[in-house]
Design a protein that fits this description.
Blueprint: E1 3-8, E2 14-18, E3 23-26
Antiparallel strand pairs: 1-2, 2-3
């Protein structure tokens, strides 16, 4: 999903807006909104993890529940 914005309402809540028209209402402000690119989108903190040959966090399993 492509998050394109976050707005705050008069009651102090937050609405997270997606590029496809979906949105989510939350009581707390999001703390990190980097998107979902290969590698988890957290490239700003990439040096804190080991990475495999596919540029994914080592040991990451997208099928794990």
């Amino acid at each position: 999903m492509d998050v394109i914005g976050v707005t705050q309402d008069d009651g102090g809540g937050f609405r997270i807006h997606a590029g496809d028209g979906r949105y989510w209402d939350e009581k707390q402000a999001p703390i990190l909104g980097t998107g979902f690119v290969k590698g988890g989108g957290a490239q700003q903190v990439a040096e804190h993890w080991e990475w495999d040959e596919d540029d994914l966090p080592a040991g990451w399993n997208p099928c794990r529940t």
